[in-house]
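Intended use. Records like the one below are meant for learning the mapping from a protein sequence to its folded structure. Do not use them to infer anything beyond what is encoded.
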Amino acid sequence: LAHAEFHRIRTPEGLHREALLKCDKALQRRILRLWIEAVRGHLRGLDFQHVESLLELITDGPPQGRLSIPGGWQLVKEYETLRLDKQSRGIRQPCSCYSYNLRVGEDLHIHEAGLLIQAREILAPLPRLPDNLMDAFFDIASLPSELTLRNFRHGDRLQPLGMAGHRKVKEIFIEKKVPLSVRASLPLLVLGDEVIWIPGYGRSEAGKVTSATKAILHLKAVPVANSILI
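Structure written out for the chain above:
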């Protein structure tokens, strides 16, 4: 039964937290041991108390957290995703800041995020509504000729489309349950000190396409493995 449940709740990223917690407590322990053995290759050094500590983090710990287990591994909890990571030796370095210039008509590969940002000028009217938030359309006349894409900074704000006020980008990340690892590398399109597009998560009221718009900037974020030009 433990093997069957383990394969049912296992995902490409790790384990699905909610599905694990629906199992009986004794079954949860066995599933964790099966998972650790499958990833680590053995269970040496892992005892009952280690498993109980992992379950405590999974059940009652913060939405995002991590806990070391013997053998140089750690369980990482990111909302409803659980994964096992090999710990790096030495001091863990924080994610470095990056900033790139984006020019209309060119593609920009953001290696840190594994994304290709495509920027194309098209004529008005708007040909269609965005398929999702990986797609964004802006009035090109309201933007400078060179835009900046950078990762998150403390205090970043965005005026969501259709809203009068601003929101902290951190609040948007928390609301949409964006893992810390993604927050650190995700590119943000900025206009001055204000964020105007978060690929996959939100866009700003700034630069909105209207009936007076004559030319449109079409931005698209594409995972590098599936990069297809617009």
